[in-house]
Amino acid sequence: SLLSASLLGIKFANPLLNASGVHCRYTDELDALAASAAGSLITKSCTLLEREGNPEPRYAATALGSINSMGLPNQGYAYYLDYARRHNYATKPLFFSVAGLSLEDNLTMMAAVRDAYIPAIVELNLSCPNVPGKPQIAYDFEAMDRMLAAVSAEYALPFGVKMPPYFDIAHFDAAAAILNKYPLVAFVTCINSIGNALVIDIENESVVIKPKDGFGGIGGDYVLPTALANVNAFYRRCPDKQVIGCGGVRSGEQVFMHLLAGASLVQVGTALHEDSPRIFARLNRELSAIMERKGYRSIEALRGKLKTL
Ligand SMILES: C=Cc1c(C(=O)O)[nH]c(=O)[nH]c1=O
Questions:
Q1: Residue ranges per domain, the chain?
Q2: The pTM is what?
């Protein structure tokens, strides 16, 4: 149909899903996504053991988006693996997000997913900006190379990576060169939040979240141009991989932009957090209206067709 999409040869009714971390920590949240108009869903990035995460307040919405320093609160990987075993894949695909605190933890968790023989798609999070003392892997190119070599060897199935934003062409080049060494890295999700921003409330003359003196990852309108640039940068540099867009989506127009930039699927974070899973029905309607107005009969007809001047 008009909004059909595909990734790893798997069919999706539409390209939309949640960004990992939003509306996906608990099974009731995941069930609501499974019952929504989203084409698929992804679990909260998980660690080996359950984590409470950082002290609250750790999320705040602003006029232009959001800031968070959640600290990777999650129920531990066994909880999400149990959910992934029970999911009905005939209704819609499920992604499984992994953010281990060590290479060993990532290997253990991904081996468990592999050995469960379920069609869950793994998105390895290389970009969590909010675990104090843990610099994010994707900003350490040697660490990322070692991680992908070990994970590829162990998991031995196609998987994806969740990347932070880069802001320098040389960094796009270097990161893509590493990803292109690993054919099992079948997709690249761009972007995670822009790390370590600072939102100030002038009434209270204070920061708005408690962890890290108020420093946290931002999402929403703030990040849209950076998200689109990262989607297109990796789309151009990784012709043998697919790209999932994430960042700044709150209407059909931004979904259309991500698709033009080369995205195969599009994740929604801040706008989903501030609304509800009902947002997916609206986004599908708005995207359909734009495509019909422009005469597109499929997403493939417009995907990656961004014009330069
Ligand atoms: C997995 C941890 C992440 C978190 C978090 O749990 O603090 N927040 C983000 O914006 N991105 C993440 O990847």
A1: 5-58+72-196+220-294
A2: 0.99
> Which mutation among 25, 56, 72 tests ligand 1's pocket best, with the greatest number of atoms within 8 A of CB?
72
Cβ burial 80-103 (10 Å sphere, 16+ → b, else e): bbebbeebeeeebbbbbbbbbbeb
Q: Which CATH architecture has domain 5-58+72-196+220-294?
A: Alpha-Beta Barrel (3.20)
- Active-site residue list: 128
Query: How close is the Cα of 74 to the center of ligand 1, in Å?
Result: 11
- Interface pTM, i.e. ipTM: 0.99
**For every one of its 309 residues, what pLDDT tens digit does the chain have, with 9 covering 90 and above?**
999 999 999 999 999 999 999 999 999 999 999 999 999 999 999 999 999 999 999 999 999 999 999 999 999 999 999 999 999 999 999 999 999 999 999 999 999 999 999 999 999 999 988 787 878 999 999 999 999 999 999 999 999 999 999 999 999 999 999 999 999 999 999 999 999 999 999 999 999 999 999 999 999 999 999 999 999 999 999 999 999 999 999 999 999 999 999 999 999 999 999 999 999 999 999 999 999 999 999 999 999 999 999
- Distance separating alpha carbons of residues 217 and 242, to the nearest angstrom: 25
Three-state DSSP class for residue 241 = coil
Q: Check if the beta carbon of residue 18 is closer than 8 Å to that of residue 12.
A: no
Ligand 1 binding pocket mutation candidate from 58, 69, 101, 130 (most atoms within 8 A of CB):
130
Determine contact, residues 191/227, Cβ cutoff 8 Å: yes
Which amino acid is residue 257, in one-letter code? M
Count of all residues that appear for the chain in the document: 309
Ligand 1 cavity residues, CB under 6 Å: 21, 45, 68-72, 99, 125, 127-128, 130, 192-193, 217
